[in-house]
Amino acid sequence: MTVTLEVANLSKSFGGVHAVVDASVSFQPGKVNAIIGPNGSGKTTFFNCVTGMIRADAGTVTLAGHDVTRASPDRIARLGLGRSFQVCRIFPRMTVLENLLVAVKNPSLTGALGSAKNPTAIAAARVWLRRVGIDHLEHAEARNLSYGQQKLLELAGVLMGDPEIIMLDEPAGGVNPALIGRISALIRELNAEGRTFVVVEHNMELVMSLSDHVVVFDRGRPIAEGDPAHVQADPRVLEAYLGV
Ligand SMILES: Nc1ncnc2c1ncn2[C@@H]1O[C@H](COP(=O)(O)OP(=O)(O)OP(=O)(O)O)[C@@H](O)[C@H]1O
């Protein structure tokens, strides 16, 4: 799998706030890419522009050779990019299995509702639940899961779309250490199978142990990129984090 994702000169402002400024990033296909940066440095805004959730003011996003700068999140998903959210997006009163069945990519509402009874979709959902380690919770209402388990459910929902590139917004945020280990192991396994990851994350230990390529944002711009050791030694990165 070698779906490429390239972002050129992306900018997005909210009123007078320049959240992302002329950001150009080429993510490495088949690798675990991380985006780090201080709070408010534009990581989530960048992420939302790339995945079609918000419209950039300028710049281009190219996915698998297609210009998707103004494409809908659905089209971007159909081209092979799946994403999670900083704050988990699940249906709290549905069961774990039902959440996965509504996550199936469907061109129509009837299709989406139909997948609830589709044996192939149900079988796929069970495979992913087993894979992320919450198959024993299939019939539990999603709201009764721990926050970490909800993150695993959301990841299983992303995987239902069989994406080649997976973008995760703070996968370890608010998750207990045991489940961080599980999420980290899963990312490794899925990456070893050929899926590319782009992970926005504050947990430095996780970023440095998991990533092949790290992009550092500061005040809306990528200021450094490279392998974890290279980035950690970059004085611009220390300055961005410590303000020295
Ligand atoms: N919808 C919005 N309306 C107005 N300002 C926004 C909006 N979204 C983000 N911002 C501002 O844009 C800047 C970048 O925010 P963003 O959430 O992208 O940063 P971040 O690096 O993801 O931060 P964090 O690490 O805290 O999640 C911040 O100053 C933020 O307040």
From TrEMBL:
Domain ABC transporter: 5-244
Highest taxon, organism lineage: Bacteria
Pfam families per UniProt: ABC_tran, BCA_ABC_TP_C
Provenance organism: Occultella gossypii
Keywords (A to Z) from UniProt: ATP-binding, Nucleotide-binding, Transport
Keyword Mitochondrion belongs to the record: no
GO molecular function: ATP binding
InterPro entries: AAA+_ATPase, ABC_AA/LPS_Transport, ABC_transporter-like_ATP-bd, ABC_transporter-like_CS, BCA_ABC_TP_C, P-loop_NTPase
Record CDD domains: ABC_Mj1267_LivG_branched
Protein name as annotated: ABC transporter ATP-binding protein
